[in-house]
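Issue 218. Parser rejects a valid record. Input:
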Amino acid sequence: MLYNFESEVPEALERLLETEMDYNVIIHTGEEPNFKEFHVHSIILRCRSEYFNNLFSTENIEKRDGKYIIKRPNISPQAFDIIIKYLYTGQFDITDKTGADLIDFMIAFGECMLNDLTKFTEDFMFRSQQQFLQDDPVGILQIIYCYKIFARLQEYCLNKICSEPKILFSSNKFTQLSVPLLEIILKRDDLNLKEIEIWESLIKWGLAQEHVFNRDVTRWNQNDINTFKKIVDKFIPLIRFYDISTRDYFNKVKPYEEILSKELRDDILKFYMVPEYKPVYTPRNPRYINGSIIIGQEHFTTFANWIDREEENTNYIDIPYEFILLYRSSRDGNTAAAFHAKCDRKGATIVVVRIANSERIVGGYNPLFWDSDDSSYIGTYVGGSFIFSFTNENGLRRANVAYSNNWRRSVYSSPINGPGFGYGDLYVNYVREPSVWYSVTSCYPTINLPNTMSVDDYEVFQVIKKSLD
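Output the parser choked on:
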């Protein structure tokens, strides 16, 4: 008969690590004052780590009094403590660690060729929704910019900052941002910040560099102007001046006008004074994610989680669905005919409705399709359908979602109506009033919608599962 006592092995190895019995390796990690010496066993490290096996196989490894001596000043004691416990026990605990801690660990994991731990930690950062950027966005960006292993994390952080720029631009360390990183961010077309605020941030950053400037720009001499121009010159082409109002240009840009080239100043003046003049430039469209003028990137991420019925919100780097704008009532016509012409037989869709005179957003997901070919009303139970509500356009943490409770009218469509969910749970009746949506709890658990809602716009997106290729 076979008995399995393998659970005792990690406990025994953990005791061996703690007691340091018969250790033959001394590893120095970190530098004073953050320094620690570890006493471990080469046979265990060889068995558990390709990195250490290769290291012990080299001829020039240092030995003293029969013990191997390894020095790793670039690996912090905290990171190596995680590594060594994993190698001895297979246990790996990174809960309650800060973003800076996790990045420090990932650098150490990368050096020790522990690719599984690197990926696990990165995925943990995405899944756990830690606000790891909040405390020190500049410091974290500077670190991940220097290491190739952080390519995915860097893209995640840049996307996060572009959708919520105050994380970075309101940081008291913003002026310490490096030139390459500032350039990367200002090049982004999806930076969700007014152009005049981008300009003011650039001025703030430039004034904080090595030269000491008088805060009153009218008192600058030619040397001050030339020095400041040299500091910010490479960023000037990244400012979309044509998106700055004449009032803001006069009050906030013109005082620094001498740092702009004469050709640029003349072109801006022509843009302001000649109505038919169209400058060649790419405006930023941070709010027009997937063509939407109502919601942003994080809403689509939330929808993907709801479609997959994830218990916890997953911060996808690459959302597994495409959201294609089919219809916008303010653009295509707020009629049943216009809705059906754009949306019928297009497969799964998500409907996003903006309530007038508020920031509240409601809507629903239809995993099947809309149809008005038949003159009769169409009602059916559709597994996975849901309705939702956001209290305001940035209120993702206070979002409510309710899935169909198996009633036969999970979705509802007819030639005279627009999209409908449940037996009146959320719908628009174009015969009654095209700018009013209605809600009576019936086929879905309540999400506390008003019975009537005045609507100023709504959008419908086709939802397509991405290929795994």
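Fixed in the parser; the record now loads. The chain has 17 helices and 15 strands.
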